[in-house]
Amino acid sequence: MANIKIPIGPQHPALKEPESFSITLNGETIISMDMRLGYNHRGIEKACEERTYIQAMYLVERVCGICSHSHSTCFIQAVEEIAGLAVPPRALYIRTIVSELERMHSHLLWLGVAGHEIGFDTLLMYSWRDREVVMDTLAALTGNRVNYGINTFGGVRRDISKEQLDGLLKTMDVLEERTKYYIEVASQEMTLIKRLSGVGYLSHEDAVKLGAVGPTGRASNVDADVRRDDPYLAYKDIEFKVITDTHNDVFGRTLVRVGELMQSYSMIRQLVAKIPEGPVTVKAPRKMPAGEALSRYEAPRGEDVHYVKANGTDKAERVKIRAPTLANLQSVAKMMENNRLADVPIIIAAIDPCFSCTDRMVQIKHADHGRQETLSWQALHAQSLEWYRKQGVDFADLNAKMSRRMKI
Amino acid sequence: MILSLFNLLIFPGFLFLSLFGLAMEFVDRKLYARMQNRIGPPWFQPFADFIKLAAKEEIIPEEADPVMFRLMPVFALTAVVTAFFYIPLWGTHSLFAFNGDLIVVIYLLTLPTLAFFLAGWHSTSLFAMIGATRTLTQLFAYEVPLFMAVLAPALLAGTWSLSEMTVFYQVHPAYAGFNIIGFIVALIAIQGKLERVPFDIPEAETEIVGGTFTEYSGRLLAMFRMAIDIEAVVCASLVAAVFLPFGFGLGPAWGFVIYVFKVLIIIALLALLRTVLARLRIEQMTIFCWKVVAPAALLQLLINLILSGVL
Questions:
Q1: CA-based nearest residue to A302, from A382, A373, A210, A366
Q2: A30: buried, middle or exposed (CB in 10 Å: 19+, 13-18, 0-12)?
């Protein structure tokens, strides 16, 4: 059978966000993979430079729908370092609690998605049902299910009451019991093991070389975790194990994530026991002094890096966001080698990709000659006018009329 | 003449089969949902889906062969409905019977799979073609075990006619107990034939979008869905007639109740299978079918060969 090229994406049921994987197949076996990013560029970094710090904080929280707290905390840490703010310990503990709850709901979500990608919808339904417990807890603690909005410069916006902390402990018992059941399922269900083990192999050397982070790296025995290696928030006060695995495949990545869930439960228990009394916020200045800072944060998907450069005004000079998915994407091409078409969805899903958080630029690829180029705003504008003119609509006149009327 | 037409078109023919098929789809979806801790659809959901789909616009791809594209759904539907007439349902005699109808039923049940393959192939879309080749690969894996599993009870009964088989097991009900391995093999093979988890490889949505049916829409897709629903009922009826030959002598009313009950049990077993398993890869599926299911079917054949000599 001749080699055929099949497109997975930009629109494909296996992908929750538009991204293009072009896969060359020989029968069912993958020969090579070509990847294109940039379908979801939103210009967040530039938008942050146009807004005040407090506005940018809310924008950064919306980089990702799942790890929203990760991005906002990572950004805030950088700004607080520049401003030299001493955040009260109680606020740090509350941030840590929300951050671990976020990891739980992210990993439970991943478990369900992984189940769906291999056609095991029962796992999807079960783990997403349990994820609701975490979501409800987050809503009770912060007021929101996804974009929690609990962070603010110099602390957190809400305190957690004694009753809420007790409720949190009860929730942990429920979740721990359910997670134990999933561990049992993952280690015993034959079709699940058959579909996961040996798939998407990424050796330890390749993982190091390609810079895999988070559970993707740890499943290839890369013993790295920012929470332990460069403690931030309240992580230096609590004890936990960094889960690593030597399976090097999708099965290993599943075990790492489920193991991290168990660690998170124990972390929450320690945090609740140790949380100090005191204020939850200090006053932060509106204008940050000049300076720069780099902040690292262990998001559920891996290490998140934010760089902020301040120039003494109330707006940042430069904000740079490196989402963990960008670090993991390089290894996907390696993982695809010698696998089958049926494994493509689960291999892509196994890095827990978050494509729209990753996209930082758009590159145009011409359909006729395949050359790549970037378009300036003016060129894009002219092209869109031309396209509509061909359809019989002339927007050039309309725009001129509108701008006269609105006196722009 | 009028009675034959009534039998063909109304009861137990096309109309009854369609309604029964949709009702069984509801049972399957509801059980699947309840076992997954979901509420599940209301009873009229399959009917509503069918009506809505049938009212939608049909789009035929420019590249596709329009004749084959339109013909295949009708072909699949006709084949499964025809197969139904040769299966004894609530009496020991089917609507039509002759010596050798067992082979014809299995042959007619293979036709929809071939129709799916041709439909995918003539859609000329990448995903549909990959789905089509997978359909055919899968056919070779489950068809032989299914054939052997259904043949084994026939061997014991010493006839190639489904109606005569049921008469035989009516006289010796205990003999049906010998066919337990064949029953399990047939259930697994039918799961493959109906392309449901863990064997829904030809239409694995996360891999190849809609598989064979990627390009189908509107009335044609509705016809395919109907064919699959009816195929489920026909397969369940075949398994019920061959492996659960009980309750035929109680008259038509009780016979009908028992028949529906048997089909329900088989549909429930199939729903359970798809709840607890993950989708296999195509090569895992063929290996499983040839290394585990086919030898099991052979074992059943061997047991029945020896038994037919001893008994």
A1: A210
A2: buried
Q: Which of B275, B276, B282 sits opposite A342 (nearest CB)?
A: B282
Task: Return the ∠ at Cα A206 (arms to A201 and A209), rounded to 5°.
Answer: 155
Task: Write the DSSP string, B15-38.
Answer: HHHHHHHHHHHHHHHHHHHHHTT-
**Cα–Cα dist B259/A245, whole Å:** 53
Distances (CA, A) of B125 to A9, A34, B89, B211, B221: 15, 21, 40, 10, 16
The sign of the torsion formed by the CA atoms of A36, A39, A45, A46 equals positive
Q: Which two tokens stand for residue B240?
A: 């019920």
* End-to-end Cα, chain B, rounded Å: 43
Q: How far is the C-alpha of B136 from the C-alpha of A105, rounded, in Å?
A: 41
Do the domain assignments include residue B138?
Answer: yes
Q: Quick one: DSSP state of residue B112?
A: H
What is the value of ipTM here, to two decimals?
Answer: 0.83
CB contacts under 8 A, A 102-131 vs B, are 115-123, 125-126, 129
Instruction: Look at residues A105, A39, A33 and name the one whose alpha carbon lies nearest to residue A348.
Output: A33
**B229 within some domain:** yes
Q: Give, in degrees to the nearest 5, the angle at Cα A41 between A39 and A42.
A: 140
Q: What does the domain layout of chain A look like in residue ranges?
A: 44-358, 383-408
In chain B, % helix, strand, coil (3-state, to 5) comes to 75, 0, 25
Task: Tell me the CB-side half-sphere exposure of residue B65, using CA atoms within 13 A.
Answer: 10
Query: What does the alpha-carbon distance between residue B162 and residue B102 come to, in Å, rounded to a whole number?
Result: 6
**Chain B residues close to A28, C-beta within 8 Å:** 282-283
Smallest Cβ–Cβ distance between B37 and the set A14, A125, A344 belongs to A125
Hey, are the CB atoms on A121 and B197 less than 8 Å from each other?
yes
In a domain, B48, yes or no: yes
Number of domains in chain B: 1
**Predicted confidence pLDDT, tens digits, chain B (311 residues):** 787 777 777 777 788 888 999 999 999 999 999 998 889 899 999 999 999 999 998 888 888 888 888 888 998 988 888 888 888 877 767 777 778 888 888 888 899 999 999 988 888 888 888 888 889 888 888 888 998 888 888 888 888 888 888 888 888 887 878 888 889 999 999 988 888 888 888 887 777 777 888 888 888 899 989 999 999 999 998 888 888 887 777 777 888 888 888 899 999 999 998 888 888 888 888 898 899 999 999 998 898 888 888 77
* A392 shares contact with chain B (CB less than 8 Å): no
In a domain, B8, yes or no: no
Partner B contacted by A320 (CB < 8 A)? no
CATH number of A44-358: 1.10.645.10, 3.60.15.10, 1.20.210.10, 2.60.34.30? 1.10.645.10
Contact B281 A13 (CB under 8 A): no
Contacting residues for B13 by C-beta, under 8 A, at least 6 apart:
B6, B7, B81, B84, B85
Residues of B with a Cβ under 8 Å from any A Cβ are 35-38, 126-127, 130, 197-198, 200-201, 204-209, 275-284
Q: Are B69 and B115 in contact (CB under 8 A)?
A: no
B chain contacts of residue A116, beta-carbon cutoff 8 Å: 206
